[in-house]
Structures are given as structure tokens and as C-alpha cells.
């Protein structure tokens, strides 16, 4: 990230934290995974069938589907079989049977929505659940046989008014889309995400789009808490939303079974390539692309489903569905099928690992939220509101989050070719997961948020289509402190804590919460080989001359990070004594071979050697400008030819830089030889020589091309910083 943007990026992430930490999973197990002290859920009962049916019909939702959707709400019972004395629904049978039925029918087969109603005992609070079954789930983070999505409608039966809508997102790692105190006469409308069927609410008068933020007279479709603190992001809610409806690109993957595409399987004769999500939206794999895709079509509503009975005052349905009680399904013991995996590349030293993660759909009536729907409220402010109104609902409990924004690294327009990068907002949603957890989470508006993370050490992985993977260790805290303000430390993995009566901790990943990803065709791996180092290393950071700090994380062993080949980098390591080492890295613009730092050292010798290297590099660049001035047609600075005096001044600067390089090399040699006094004297000379170089450069910079002057200025500042560190270092 550029120096001038560093504050902005950090402020943005503190803003995200303010909302992300309160957008955590309320009512989930304690952050350390031990739920022995968790409150026992309030008991619920099922009302009589007539009451349940009346409530279900009153709030029965309309469901709007993407034009490219393949798997609409249906009834799984036609695909049920008996196995070992139990009723099961087999994945092959459901997918192949549904695909065949859909091809033969004029409308989606057996359109059905199932309902389940519970009442909290000694409370007027009831919850109507609408469970939607699809035969398959194909998305960018995972795919699986069978898919169950749920909409919860919380109703005060005394007032006969809805209190809260909760529409399910991808998993417990991603915040749901929720709306507190909806208009009493508003029937819930769901925009179903293509393939994944994640549910976005659409409650305002713009019925076919998701409105994350208010617009003119249109209210937002969710009331999840804003991310806060920063004016630019003060209104951005922490909720998944509907990326393709919000203008962000989201490529889909092709599911495989046993290493072959799903449509090639012998048990799926009715399934061909056309039965899956359209190829225009699909990539074979994230790493099959050299650059992020830029031509994926946006979302477009096609079919709208509405109930065959009850009222749907806000829409005319294209397809009517049957509203059926889940009691008619509860004899189904399991929804089965072989595991489907999706692969994540994980940067590691020497050779990348491939982590295969799986996600499966559970059976609704075996989930905690089936009998205690409050367990599915992911916005603590919403849960706190219900807890204030109803004794049956407990206040939100403590939770950990890991939060970052994902950006893209590009060449800096202010830098000479191959000498600097910067970061920009990405139009592509990425995917984040922890190596310790098989549940992946897509980003929303470029924000990666993993909720309910256990306290301890984790390795965070972020992948994006056409982007080199990112991985870093993160330390997640869980003390649940609630100071007066949201704060963040300057540790490699800063942690923020917040108030509102919710014990929560949000850990910033990346650099101050920003994770920059590099397009694959411009990426090279920077490997740090710690084996044989003379000290135990604890931290690794990578800075670009123009982009600033791009990577910062703990280092326990040899590691690697992908960098853009258009940059010029300073790699920094620290050891257990907090001693610093620095190394210059200039990847070849046209060579993707890894760059390796072997046995990195810390202390005076390392830092002085770095100053010698970066000074020589800068001198070569400036000398090439002198050659251009002397060539026929050569010009200086801003298009003006250099005078003899100017050329002489450049020569004087180069001679002064030779003195800097010499002093730095002597300091490094004496430090390596154990001569502390000689090293310190050489460093004093180095500092004085470097100051003279900076003064000469300041008098000359107006005659230099702007990119070259900017690059030299940044390198001189880097040299001064490392010289000061070397002088202060205790370690030789």
C-alpha cells in the first residue's frame, strides 16, 4: 500500500472492525471451543398444526432466482430410498433425478417450501422457519449434494407483528442478512444467490435487487450494524449480501468427483455440462487463470416463486410452490453422497501445498437452530434487541473474528518500470479459510470476515481467481475485554476489542487489516529460508518502495510470500531479541522463478550490507540517467536538456554515493568480524556520508525525471532508516 494511503487503509479496517466484531455469530460456542459454560437455550415447543399453518401462510416468502439458476426449490421425497432400515436421500439419485425431471417439464419440478414453527415457552415470541431444499449446490467456495437454506421470521404473537427476519448465508463463518422490525405488512422477499442459494433480503420497493445501503427514498434491505468509525465506510453493514447484484465479479468452479468433472460420472447419466452453472460464469479452477476474470455477467432475476396459498401482495409469481410442514420429512435420517472437495493453494516454502476442503449440508431437524432459532442470529445488536424484549432470548455471547480487506497489487504509475507497485480496490470477490477449519468464507465488498474463530494459532489462506494465493499465520485472542473504544495494536496481527455489552475480539490479518493479492501472471514467490540462520526468527515483513508494507506476519520457520514482479522490495526479519535484518529483493520483470533469501541474519552486518546494496542500486539507476543526458537527443528532468553544471552535479552525487557504499561495506565487514568499535565508527561515517548524499540529491531532484526522483528519494529514506537501526543494534 502506498505510503500516503497507509493511514486510510488502516482507518478503513478499523471501520470494518467496528461492525465486523459486532457482526459475529451470537449464541455460538465460546471462542475457545469450550461451551461448557454456555447458557442453556430456552425451551421451545411446537404449536398446534392449525396455528403453525396460519403463521406459515401469513409470512410465506417470495423467492427470486438468477437467470442462470439450475436447481430450484423442490421436494426431496421423490428421491428417497431405504438403506439399512433408514430413509435416506442419495445425492446421485437427487441430482440425476431432478436434472431429468427438469429437462422433461415446462416448469421446475415439484416446487416446494417447507415450514417449521416453534414457540418459546412462557413467551409471546414464535419463529416461523422456511426451509428450502435444492438438489445441488455449486458455488465458488464449495459445492455439495443437497442444499438446505432457511429464512427465520420472528413474530410477537401478542402483537401479531414480525420482529426480525434472518436469511441464511453460506455458513456460520459468514454473517447472515438480517432485518430488525420489518414493516408488519411486508412479506419477506428472498433473492437467491446463483448456485449457492445463499439468501439475500429484498424488502424495499426495488424488489429485484439487493440494497445494502439506503439510497434516496429507498431504505436498505438489511439492518446489520454499520462498519462505523470511518466516514467513507460508516454505513457499510457487515453482512454477506449478494455480490453479483452489487457489481462485484464472482467466478464459479466446476465440481469434481474422484478427480473428474461431475458430469462425467457414470451414476449421473442425465447430467451434462449444460446442467451446471453456465460456462460464462465458470472457471475450471482458480489457478487456471493468469489474471482475474473481468467479463463475468451480472445477476439478472428470472423466475419468481410464490406460495400457492396465503397472500403475496408484493409480486406476481411465475411459479407457485407448495407450503409443506417439515414434519412430513422428519423420517428422513440423512442426505448422503460422496464428499466433494475444492482446492486451495497454500504458499509454503519451496513448494505450494494444496488444501482440499469440504462442506456438506446437514439435516435441518438435527441442527440446534431447528429448535432454537435464536442460535442463528448473527448480528449481536439484533439478538440484544430481542433479549431486551423477551426473557426467553439470551444476550449475545463472546466471540472471536478474523477480519481483513482484500486488495489487488498493480504497477505504480509513479514509479520507474519494475521499481514500484501500489494497491487498488478489487472488483473480484475472494475466498478465505483457516487451515484448521474446512468452512470457507467468500468476501463481501472485498471484506474477509471469519466469525467464531477459536482462540489460538491459525493459518489464514486467501485465494482468488487469477490471483496468486496468500497465506499467513494469525494469533487469535479471546479475552472478551470491552474497553471504552475500539482499539488496535501495532503487533503483526493486531487485535481490536469493543463494547456494547458484547465480549468480542477481532483480529486484523494482513498489514493493518489489508491483504494485497497479486495477479498470477505478474507474481513471483519470495522464499525466506530460515534453516541454518544464526538466530531464531519471529517475524517477516515485505515493503515495496512505492507500495509500502505489503506483508507482515509472524515467522516460525521457513516461509514464502508472493510478490509482484513490477516491485522493488525490502524484506525485513526480526528475531527473538527483536534484532532486525534487511535484504534487498528486485525480481526480474520477465522471470517468474522464485527469489530466495538464504539463512537471513539480523544485526549490524545485515543492515549495513542492505544499505550498501540499495545505494549501489540507486547509483546505477541515476548513472543511467546521466548516460541518457549525454546521448544525442537526451534530455533531463521535465523535458529540458541538462546543462554542464547539472551533469556535473549528478556526477558529484554519484561520487558521494560511492562513499556511502564504501562506508556501509566496511561497517558490514567489521560487524561480521566481531569488531564492534570499528563497525560503529564506520556506521558514523556512513550516516554522515548519507546525509551529504541526501543534501546533494535535494538540490538536483528538480532536474530529474519525476519517477526516477521519487524512486531515489524513497531509497535514500530507506537507507537512512536502516543506518539508524544498525547504529542502535546491539547484535553485530
Automatic annotation (TrEMBL):
Residues 632-642 have a biased composition (Gly residues). Residues 712-732 have a biased composition (Basic and acidic residues). Residues 27-51, 475-501, 625-647, 706-732 are annotated as: Disordered. It comes from Haloplanus ruber. This is Uncharacterized protein. Residues 39-49, 483-501 have a biased composition (Low complexity).
Amino acid at each position: 500500500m502506498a505510503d500516503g494511503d497507509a493511514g486510510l487503509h488502516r482507518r478503513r479496517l478499523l471501520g470494518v472492525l467496528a461492525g465486523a466484531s459486532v457482526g459475529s455469530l451470537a449464541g455460538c460456542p465460546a471462542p475457545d471451543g469450550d461451551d461448557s459454560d454456555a447458557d442453556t437455550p430456552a425451551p421451545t415447543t411446537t404449536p398446534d398444526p392449525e396455528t403453525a399453518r396460519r403463521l406459515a401462510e401469513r409470512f410465506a416468502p417470495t423467492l427470486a432466482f438468477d437467470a442462470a439458476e439450475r436447481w430450484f426449490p423442490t421436494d426431496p421425497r421423490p428421491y428417497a430410498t431405504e438403506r439399512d432400515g433408514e430413509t435416506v436421500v442419495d445425492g446421485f439419485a437427487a441430482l440425476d433425478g431432478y436434472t431429468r425431471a427438469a429437462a422433461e417439464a415446462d416448469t421446475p419440478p415439484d416446487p416446494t417450501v417447507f415450514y417449521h414453527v416453534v414457540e418459546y415457552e412462557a413467551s409471546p415470541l414464535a419463529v416461523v422457519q422456511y426451509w428450502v431444499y435444492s438438489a445441488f449446490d455449486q458455488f465458488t467456495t464449495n459445492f455439495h449434494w443437497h442444499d438446505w437454506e432457511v429464512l427465520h421470521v420472528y413474530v410477537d404473537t401478542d402483537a401479531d407483528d414480525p420482529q426480525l427476519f434472518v436469511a441464511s448465508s453460506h455458513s456460520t463463518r459468514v454473517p447472515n442478512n438480517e432485518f430488525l422490525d420489518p414493516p408488519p405488512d411486508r412479506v419477506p422477499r428472498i433473492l437467491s444467490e446463483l448456485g449457492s442459494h445463499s439468501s439475500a433480503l429484498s424488502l424495499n420497493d426495488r424488489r429485484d435487487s439487493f440494497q445494502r445501503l439506503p439510497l434516496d427514498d429507498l431504505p436498505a434491505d438489511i439492518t446489520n450494524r454499520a462498519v462505523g468509525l470511518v466516514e467513507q465506510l460508516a454505513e457499510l453493514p457487515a453482512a454477506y449480501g449478494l455480490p453479483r447484484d452489487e457489481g462485484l465479479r464472482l467466478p464459479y468452479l466446476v465440481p469434481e468427483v474422484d478427480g473428474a468433472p461431475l458430469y462425467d460420472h457414470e451414476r449421473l447419466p442425465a447430467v451434462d455440462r449444460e446442467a451446471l452453472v453456465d460456462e460464462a460464469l465458470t472457471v475450471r479452477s482458480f489457478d487456471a487463470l493468469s489474471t482475474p476474470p473481468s467479463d463475468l455477467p451480472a445477476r439478472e432475476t428470472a423466475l419468481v416463486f410464490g406460495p400457492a396459498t396465503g397472500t403475496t401482495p408484493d409480486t406476481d409469481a411465475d411459479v407457485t410452490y407448495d407450503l409443506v410442514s417439515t414434519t412430513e420429512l422428519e423420517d428422513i435420517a440423512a442426505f448422503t453422497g460422496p464428499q466433494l472437495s475444492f482446492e486451495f493453494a497454500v504458499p509454503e516454502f519451496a513448494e505450494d501445498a494444496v488444501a482440499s476442503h469440504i462442506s456438506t449440508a446437514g439435516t435441518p431437524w438435527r441442527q440446534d437452530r431447528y429448535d432454537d432459532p435464536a442460535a442463528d442470529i448473527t448480528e449481536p445488536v439484533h439478538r440484544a434487541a430481542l433479549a431486551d424484549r423477551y426473557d426467553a432470548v439470551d444476550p449475545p455471547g463472546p466471540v472471536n473474528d478474523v477480519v481483513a480487506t482484500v486488495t489487488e497489487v498493480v504497477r505504480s504509475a509513479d514509479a520507474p518500470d519494475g521499481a514500484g507497485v501500489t494497491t487498488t480496490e478489487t472488483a473480484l470477490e475472494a475466498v478465505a479459510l483457516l487451515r484448521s477449519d474446512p468452512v470457507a468464507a467468500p468476501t463481501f465488498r472485498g471484506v474477509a470476515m471469519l466469525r467464531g474463530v477459536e482462540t489460538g494459532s491459525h493459518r489464514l489462506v486467501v485465494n482468488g481467481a487469477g490471483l496468486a494465493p496468500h497465506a499467513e499465520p494469525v494469533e487469535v485472542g479471546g479475552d472478551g475485554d470491552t474497553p471504552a473504544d475500539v482499539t488496535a495494536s501495532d503487533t503483526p496481527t493486531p487485535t481490536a476489542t469493543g463494547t456494547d455489552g458484547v465480549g468480542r475480539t477481532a483480529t486484523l490479518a494482513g498489514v493493518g487489516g489489508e491483504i494485497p493479492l497479486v495477479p498470477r501472471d505478474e507474481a513471483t514467490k519470495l522464499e525466506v529460508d530460515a534453516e541454518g540462520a544464526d538466530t531464531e526468527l519471529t517475524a517477516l515483513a515485505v515493503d515495496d518502495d512505492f507500495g509500502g508494507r505489503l506483508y507482515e506476519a509472524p515467522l516460525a520457520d521457513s516461509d514464502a510470500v508472493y510478490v509482484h514482479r513490477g516491485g522493488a522490495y525490502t524484506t525485513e526479519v526480526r528475531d527473538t531479541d527483536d534484532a532486525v535484518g534487511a535484504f534487498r529483493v528486485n525480481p526480474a520483470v520477465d522471470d517468474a522463478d522464485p527469489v530466495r533469501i538464504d539463512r537471513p541474519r539480523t544485526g549490524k552486518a545485515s543492515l549495513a550490507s542492505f544499505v550498501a546494496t540499495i545505494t549501489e542500486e540507486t547509483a546505477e539507476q541515476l548513472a543511467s540517467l546521466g548516460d541518457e543526458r549525454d546521448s544525442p537527443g537526451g534530455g533531463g528532468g521535465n523535458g529540458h536538456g541538462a546543462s554542464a553544471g547539472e551533469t556535473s552535479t549528478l556526477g558529484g552525487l554519484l561520487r558521494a554515493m560511492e562513499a556511502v557504499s564504501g562506508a556501509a561495506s566496511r561497517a558490514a565487514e567489521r560487524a561480521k568480524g566481531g569488531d564492534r568499535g570499528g563497525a560503529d565508527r564506520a556506521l558514523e561515517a556512513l550516516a554522515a556520508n548519507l546525509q551529504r548524499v541526501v543534501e546533494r540529491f535535494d538540490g538536483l531532484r528538480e532536474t530529474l525525471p519525476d519517477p526516477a526522483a521519487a524512486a531515489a528519494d524513497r531509497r535514500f529514506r530507506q537507507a537512512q532508516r536502516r543506518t539508524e537501526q544498525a547504529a542502535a543494534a546491539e547484535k553485530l
